[in-house]
Amino acid sequence: MTHTYRIAAIPADGVGAEVVSAGRQVLDAVAAASAGRFSFDWTEFPWGSEYYAQHGQLMPSDGLEALTDFDAIYFGAVGWENVPDHVSLWGLRLNITQNFDQWANIRPVKFLPGVNSPLRAADDRELDWIVVRENSEGEYAGLGGRNLSGRGPGNEVAVQSSLFTDKGCERIIRFAFELARTRSVKKVSSVTKSNAQQYGMVLWDEVFARVAQEYPDVATESVLVDAMSAKFVLHPEELSVVVASNLNADILSDLGSALAGSLGLAASANLNPEGRFPSMFEPVHGSAPDIAGQGICNPIGAIASGALMLRHFGLEAEAHAVERAIESATGAGHLTRDLGGTASTEDVTHAIVEALEQ
Ligand code: GGG
Protein backbone atom coordinates (compact mmCIF):
# COMPACT_ATOMS: atom_id res chain seq x y z
CA MET A 1 0.00 0.00 0.00
CA THR A 2 1.24 3.47 -0.89
CA HIS A 3 1.66 5.90 1.99
CA THR A 4 0.96 9.45 0.87
CA TYR A 5 2.72 12.27 2.67
CA ARG A 6 0.77 15.53 2.45
CA ILE A 7 3.20 18.41 2.09
CA ALA A 8 2.42 22.13 2.19
CA ALA A 9 4.86 23.95 -0.08
CA ILE A 10 5.41 27.66 0.61
CA PRO A 11 7.97 29.00 -1.88
CA ALA A 12 7.35 32.61 -0.69
CA ASP A 13 9.85 35.19 -1.98
CA GLY A 14 12.76 35.62 -4.40
CA VAL A 15 14.71 32.44 -5.06
CA GLY A 16 12.22 30.54 -2.88
CA ALA A 17 10.22 29.44 -5.93
CA GLU A 18 13.34 28.15 -7.75
CA VAL A 19 14.74 26.17 -4.84
CA VAL A 20 11.38 24.73 -3.76
CA SER A 21 10.80 23.57 -7.34
CA ALA A 22 14.26 21.94 -7.33
CA GLY A 23 13.58 20.19 -4.02
CA ARG A 24 10.22 18.95 -5.20
CA GLN A 25 11.79 17.43 -8.33
CA VAL A 26 14.28 15.51 -6.20
CA LEU A 27 11.68 14.38 -3.63
CA ASP A 28 9.31 13.27 -6.39
CA ALA A 29 12.16 11.29 -7.96
CA VAL A 30 12.78 9.61 -4.59
CA ALA A 31 9.07 8.75 -4.33
CA ALA A 32 9.03 7.45 -7.92
CA ALA A 33 11.92 5.12 -7.07
CA SER A 34 10.13 3.77 -3.98
CA ALA A 35 8.21 1.20 -6.06
CA GLY A 36 4.88 2.51 -4.80
CA ARG A 37 5.80 2.48 -1.10
CA PHE A 38 5.16 6.20 -0.71
CA SER A 39 4.27 9.34 -2.62
CA PHE A 40 4.03 13.06 -1.98
CA ASP A 41 0.83 15.03 -2.33
CA TRP A 42 1.86 18.68 -2.68
CA THR A 43 -0.32 21.70 -1.99
CA GLU A 44 1.28 25.03 -2.83
CA PHE A 45 0.42 28.19 -0.86
CA PRO A 46 1.10 31.50 -2.65
CA TRP A 47 2.02 33.40 0.51
CA GLY A 48 4.80 35.93 1.02
CA SER A 49 5.56 39.51 0.05
CA GLU A 50 3.52 39.48 -3.17
CA TYR A 51 0.53 38.22 -1.18
CA TYR A 52 1.19 41.07 1.26
CA ALA A 53 1.00 43.62 -1.58
CA GLN A 54 -2.50 42.39 -2.38
CA HIS A 55 -3.84 41.52 1.08
CA GLY A 56 -1.82 43.54 3.60
CA GLN A 57 -0.57 40.39 5.34
CA LEU A 58 1.99 37.72 4.50
CA MET A 59 -0.46 34.85 4.90
CA PRO A 60 -4.20 34.72 5.55
CA SER A 61 -5.52 34.92 9.11
CA ASP A 62 -6.66 31.29 8.92
CA GLY A 63 -3.37 30.20 7.27
CA LEU A 64 -2.09 28.32 10.31
CA GLU A 65 -5.34 26.37 10.46
CA ALA A 66 -4.91 25.48 6.78
CA LEU A 67 -1.43 24.06 7.52
CA THR A 68 -2.32 22.07 10.64
CA ASP A 69 -3.22 18.78 8.99
CA PHE A 70 -0.21 18.51 6.68
CA ASP A 71 2.54 16.01 7.43
CA ALA A 72 5.19 18.70 6.86
CA ILE A 73 5.82 22.15 5.45
CA TYR A 74 8.45 22.71 2.77
CA PHE A 75 9.46 26.36 2.79
CA GLY A 76 11.52 28.55 0.45
CA ALA A 77 12.62 31.97 1.67
CA VAL A 78 11.03 35.14 2.92
CA GLY A 79 11.87 38.81 2.38
CA TRP A 80 11.35 41.33 -0.40
CA GLU A 81 11.85 45.04 -0.83
CA ASN A 82 8.13 45.98 -0.63
CA VAL A 83 7.90 44.82 2.99
CA PRO A 84 10.18 45.74 5.91
CA ASP A 85 12.24 42.64 6.77
CA HIS A 86 10.96 42.43 10.34
CA VAL A 87 7.37 42.50 9.06
CA SER A 88 7.91 39.74 6.50
CA LEU A 89 9.89 37.54 8.90
CA TRP A 90 7.33 37.80 11.71
CA GLY A 91 4.40 37.68 9.30
CA LEU A 92 5.34 34.34 7.77
CA ARG A 93 8.36 32.32 8.88
CA LEU A 94 8.25 33.17 12.57
CA ASN A 95 4.46 33.08 12.57
CA ILE A 96 4.74 29.42 11.61
CA THR A 97 7.76 28.38 13.70
CA GLN A 98 6.44 30.02 16.87
CA ASN A 99 2.77 29.06 16.60
CA PHE A 100 3.60 25.48 15.65
CA ASP A 101 6.10 25.30 18.52
CA GLN A 102 8.90 24.21 16.20
CA TRP A 103 11.33 24.72 19.02
CA ALA A 104 14.26 22.70 17.66
CA ASN A 105 15.99 24.05 14.57
CA ILE A 106 18.73 21.77 13.34
CA ARG A 107 21.29 23.04 10.85
CA PRO A 108 23.91 20.53 9.68
CA VAL A 109 27.19 21.88 8.29
CA LYS A 110 29.54 19.65 6.35
CA PHE A 111 32.25 19.74 3.70
CA LEU A 112 31.06 18.46 0.32
CA PRO A 113 33.32 16.84 -2.29
CA GLY A 114 34.40 19.22 -5.03
CA VAL A 115 33.46 22.31 -3.03
CA ASN A 116 36.27 24.67 -2.11
CA SER A 117 36.08 26.29 1.28
CA PRO A 118 38.32 28.81 3.01
CA LEU A 119 39.07 26.14 5.63
CA ARG A 120 39.67 23.26 3.30
CA ALA A 121 42.20 25.31 1.38
CA ALA A 122 44.20 25.66 4.59
CA ASP A 123 44.71 21.96 5.33
CA ASP A 124 42.97 18.60 5.42
CA ARG A 125 40.70 19.28 8.39
CA GLU A 126 37.23 17.80 8.33
CA LEU A 127 34.11 19.74 9.14
CA ASP A 128 30.94 17.90 10.13
CA TRP A 129 28.73 19.57 12.72
CA ILE A 130 25.12 20.13 13.56
CA VAL A 131 24.18 23.52 14.93
CA VAL A 132 21.11 23.16 17.15
CA ARG A 133 19.22 26.44 17.37
CA GLU A 134 16.73 27.14 20.15
CA ASN A 135 13.84 28.22 17.97
CA SER A 136 11.06 29.43 20.24
CA GLU A 137 12.34 32.02 22.71
CA GLY A 138 15.64 33.74 23.57
CA GLU A 139 16.30 36.86 21.52
CA TYR A 140 13.35 36.00 19.23
CA ALA A 141 10.73 36.17 21.97
CA GLY A 142 9.34 39.34 20.39
CA LEU A 143 9.34 41.17 23.72
CA GLY A 144 9.87 44.90 23.86
CA GLY A 145 8.57 48.14 22.48
CA ARG A 146 9.41 51.46 20.85
CA ASN A 147 8.78 55.11 21.59
CA LEU A 148 9.19 54.43 25.28
CA SER A 149 10.60 57.82 26.14
CA GLY A 150 7.61 59.65 24.68
CA ARG A 151 10.03 62.43 23.76
CA GLY A 152 9.67 62.22 19.98
CA PRO A 153 12.06 61.92 17.02
CA GLY A 154 15.74 61.82 17.81
CA ASN A 155 15.13 60.83 21.42
CA GLU A 156 13.48 57.53 20.83
CA VAL A 157 14.10 54.64 23.22
CA ALA A 158 13.49 51.04 22.18
CA VAL A 159 13.71 47.91 24.30
CA GLN A 160 14.23 44.37 22.96
CA SER A 161 14.19 41.73 25.69
CA SER A 162 15.26 38.10 25.57
CA LEU A 163 13.26 35.38 27.26
CA PHE A 164 14.92 32.27 28.67
CA THR A 165 12.86 29.71 30.54
CA ASP A 166 14.18 26.68 32.40
CA LYS A 167 11.86 24.43 30.36
CA GLY A 168 12.82 26.06 27.05
CA CYS A 169 16.54 25.73 27.79
CA GLU A 170 16.20 22.19 29.08
CA ARG A 171 14.29 20.81 26.10
CA ILE A 172 16.72 22.16 23.50
CA ILE A 173 19.81 21.18 25.49
CA ARG A 174 18.43 17.68 26.06
CA PHE A 175 17.66 17.49 22.32
CA ALA A 176 21.31 18.36 21.58
CA PHE A 177 22.57 15.63 23.93
CA GLU A 178 20.28 13.01 22.42
CA LEU A 179 21.48 14.03 18.95
CA ALA A 180 25.13 13.84 20.05
CA ARG A 181 24.56 10.26 21.22
CA THR A 182 23.66 9.29 17.64
CA ARG A 183 26.93 10.67 16.22
CA SER A 184 30.42 9.22 16.01
CA VAL A 185 31.86 12.18 17.94
CA LYS A 186 29.75 12.39 21.10
CA LYS A 187 30.23 15.97 22.17
CA VAL A 188 27.98 18.97 22.83
CA SER A 189 29.33 22.52 22.77
CA SER A 190 27.06 25.02 24.48
CA VAL A 191 27.32 28.65 23.39
CA THR A 192 26.22 31.75 25.30
CA LYS A 193 27.44 35.21 26.20
CA SER A 194 26.72 34.67 29.87
CA ASN A 195 29.53 36.90 31.11
CA ALA A 196 27.64 39.91 29.75
CA GLN A 197 24.05 38.59 29.56
CA GLN A 198 23.87 37.90 33.26
CA TYR A 199 20.31 36.63 33.66
CA GLY A 200 18.95 34.49 30.82
CA MET A 201 22.25 33.14 29.61
CA VAL A 202 23.45 32.29 33.11
CA LEU A 203 20.22 30.30 33.47
CA TRP A 204 21.09 28.56 30.16
CA ASP A 205 24.58 27.68 31.47
CA GLU A 206 23.12 26.28 34.71
CA VAL A 207 20.57 24.16 32.86
CA PHE A 208 23.32 22.93 30.53
CA ALA A 209 25.46 21.83 33.50
CA ARG A 210 22.44 20.11 35.09
CA VAL A 211 21.38 18.21 31.95
CA ALA A 212 25.00 17.27 31.15
CA GLN A 213 25.12 15.19 34.36
CA GLU A 214 22.61 12.80 32.79
CA TYR A 215 24.89 12.21 29.78
CA PRO A 216 28.27 11.12 31.18
CA ASP A 217 29.03 9.44 27.83
CA VAL A 218 28.91 12.78 26.01
CA ALA A 219 31.81 15.25 26.18
CA THR A 220 30.86 18.86 26.89
CA GLU A 221 32.17 22.39 26.77
CA SER A 222 30.64 25.82 27.42
CA VAL A 223 32.07 28.51 25.17
CA LEU A 224 31.29 32.22 24.81
CA VAL A 225 29.92 33.12 21.39
CA ASP A 226 32.86 35.33 20.46
CA ALA A 227 35.33 32.56 21.30
CA MET A 228 33.14 30.04 19.47
CA SER A 229 33.24 32.18 16.31
CA ALA A 230 37.02 31.97 16.42
CA LYS A 231 36.86 28.24 17.12
CA PHE A 232 34.64 27.68 14.07
CA VAL A 233 37.44 29.08 11.94
CA LEU A 234 40.51 27.83 13.81
CA HIS A 235 39.47 24.42 15.20
CA PRO A 236 36.40 23.16 13.27
CA GLU A 237 37.52 19.56 13.76
CA GLU A 238 36.84 19.89 17.52
CA LEU A 239 33.08 20.36 17.06
CA SER A 240 30.20 17.91 16.71
CA VAL A 241 26.89 19.28 18.08
CA VAL A 242 26.75 23.00 18.86
CA VAL A 243 23.71 24.20 20.83
CA ALA A 244 22.93 27.90 21.16
CA SER A 245 20.18 30.43 21.63
CA ASN A 246 18.03 31.63 18.74
CA LEU A 247 20.17 34.58 17.64
CA ASN A 248 23.60 33.14 18.42
CA ALA A 249 22.84 29.90 16.58
CA ASP A 250 21.46 31.79 13.58
CA ILE A 251 24.67 33.78 13.26
CA LEU A 252 26.95 30.80 13.93
CA SER A 253 25.19 28.57 11.40
CA ASP A 254 25.63 31.21 8.67
CA LEU A 255 29.31 31.40 9.56
CA GLY A 256 29.52 27.60 9.48
CA SER A 257 27.92 27.27 6.07
CA ALA A 258 30.17 30.02 4.65
CA LEU A 259 33.15 28.08 5.99
CA ALA A 260 31.82 24.95 4.28
CA GLY A 261 31.68 26.85 0.98
CA SER A 262 28.42 28.81 0.71
CA LEU A 263 25.27 29.78 2.53
CA GLY A 264 23.48 28.21 -0.43
CA LEU A 265 24.46 24.74 0.86
CA ALA A 266 22.88 25.01 4.28
CA ALA A 267 19.80 22.93 5.12
CA SER A 268 17.54 23.20 8.11
CA ALA A 269 14.67 21.51 9.90
CA ASN A 270 12.33 23.39 12.24
CA LEU A 271 11.02 20.55 14.36
CA ASN A 272 8.05 20.21 16.67
CA PRO A 273 9.46 17.03 18.23
CA GLU A 274 6.19 16.19 20.01
CA GLY A 275 4.46 15.89 16.62
CA ARG A 276 1.50 18.03 17.69
CA PHE A 277 2.11 20.34 14.73
CA PRO A 278 3.78 19.85 11.35
CA SER A 279 7.53 20.48 11.22
CA MET A 280 9.00 22.78 8.57
CA PHE A 281 11.98 22.18 6.29
CA GLU A 282 13.78 25.04 4.51
CA PRO A 283 17.16 26.16 3.27
CA VAL A 284 18.90 28.48 5.71
CA HIS A 285 19.39 31.17 3.07
CA GLY A 286 17.02 34.04 2.43
CA SER A 287 15.31 35.24 -0.75
CA ALA A 288 18.49 36.57 -2.47
CA PRO A 289 16.81 39.38 -4.48
CA ASP A 290 20.08 40.06 -6.38
CA ILE A 291 19.91 36.72 -8.21
CA ALA A 292 16.20 35.82 -7.98
CA GLY A 293 14.52 34.69 -11.20
CA GLN A 294 17.79 34.13 -13.06
CA GLY A 295 17.95 30.35 -12.63
CA ILE A 296 21.40 30.50 -11.06
CA CYS A 297 20.77 30.08 -7.34
CA ASN A 298 22.14 27.09 -5.47
CA PRO A 299 19.37 24.51 -4.87
CA ILE A 300 21.45 22.30 -2.55
CA GLY A 301 20.29 23.91 0.72
CA ALA A 302 16.66 23.23 -0.24
CA ILE A 303 17.35 19.74 -1.57
CA ALA A 304 19.31 18.80 1.56
CA SER A 305 16.38 20.16 3.62
CA GLY A 306 14.22 17.69 1.68
CA ALA A 307 16.58 14.95 2.89
CA LEU A 308 15.99 16.13 6.46
CA MET A 309 12.24 15.87 5.80
CA LEU A 310 12.66 12.29 4.56
CA ARG A 311 14.62 11.46 7.73
CA HIS A 312 11.86 13.06 9.82
CA PHE A 313 9.40 10.65 8.17
CA GLY A 314 11.63 7.72 9.11
CA LEU A 315 12.85 7.29 5.52
CA GLU A 316 16.52 7.08 6.54
CA ALA A 317 17.76 5.14 3.50
CA GLU A 318 16.08 7.64 1.16
CA ALA A 319 17.47 10.63 3.10
CA HIS A 320 20.91 9.09 2.89
CA ALA A 321 20.47 8.48 -0.87
CA VAL A 322 19.67 12.17 -1.44
CA GLU A 323 22.71 13.23 0.59
CA ARG A 324 24.93 10.83 -1.41
CA ALA A 325 23.43 12.15 -4.68
CA ILE A 326 24.28 15.72 -3.63
CA GLU A 327 27.86 14.63 -2.90
CA SER A 328 28.06 12.85 -6.21
CA ALA A 329 26.83 15.96 -8.09
CA THR A 330 29.23 18.37 -6.38
CA GLY A 331 32.06 15.85 -6.65
CA ALA A 332 31.48 15.69 -10.41
CA GLY A 333 31.77 19.49 -10.64
CA HIS A 334 28.12 20.49 -10.91
CA LEU A 335 28.55 23.76 -9.03
CA THR A 336 26.53 26.97 -9.11
CA ARG A 337 28.21 30.39 -9.17
CA ASP A 338 28.32 30.84 -5.40
CA LEU A 339 30.64 27.80 -5.41
CA GLY A 340 32.76 29.11 -8.28
CA GLY A 341 31.03 27.06 -11.00
CA THR A 342 28.83 27.92 -13.97
CA ALA A 343 26.00 25.41 -13.53
CA SER A 344 22.41 26.62 -13.39
CA THR A 345 19.89 25.68 -10.70
CA GLU A 346 18.33 23.20 -13.14
CA ASP A 347 21.73 21.69 -14.09
CA VAL A 348 22.52 20.93 -10.45
CA THR A 349 19.01 19.60 -9.79
CA HIS A 350 19.18 17.28 -12.81
CA ALA A 351 22.65 16.07 -11.80
CA ILE A 352 21.27 15.18 -8.34
CA VAL A 353 18.22 13.41 -9.80
CA GLU A 354 20.49 11.48 -12.19
CA ALA A 355 22.85 10.50 -9.38
CA LEU A 356 19.84 9.22 -7.42
CA GLU A 357 18.91 6.95 -10.31
CA GLN A 358 22.35 5.30 -10.49
N1 GGG B 1 14.70 30.18 4.36
C1 GGG B 1 15.01 30.97 5.48
C2 GGG B 1 14.60 32.39 5.35
O1 GGG B 1 13.80 32.75 4.54
N2 GGG B 1 15.17 33.23 6.20
C3 GGG B 1 14.87 34.61 6.19
C4 GGG B 1 15.45 35.32 7.37
O2 GGG B 1 15.71 36.51 7.29
N3 GGG B 1 15.65 34.64 8.46
C5 GGG B 1 16.21 35.16 9.65
C6 GGG B 1 15.86 34.29 10.79
O3 GGG B 1 15.01 33.41 10.66
O4 GGG B 1 16.42 34.47 11.86
UniProtKB/TrEMBL annotation:
Top-rank EC class of the record's enzyme: oxidoreductase
Family recorded in the similarity comment: Belongs to the isocitrate and isopropylmalate dehydrogenases family.
Protein name: D-malate dehydrogenase (decarboxylating)
Source species, domain of life: Bacteria
Transmembrane domains' residue ranges: none
Xref: PROSITE patterns: IDH_IMDH
Keywords: Manganese, Metal-binding, NAD, Oxidoreductase
One Gene Ontology term of the molecular function aspect: NAD binding
SMART domains with a match to the protein in the record: Iso_dh
Cofactor: Mn(2+); Mg(2+)
Domain Isopropylmalate dehydrogenase-like per the UniProt entry, residue ranges: 6-352
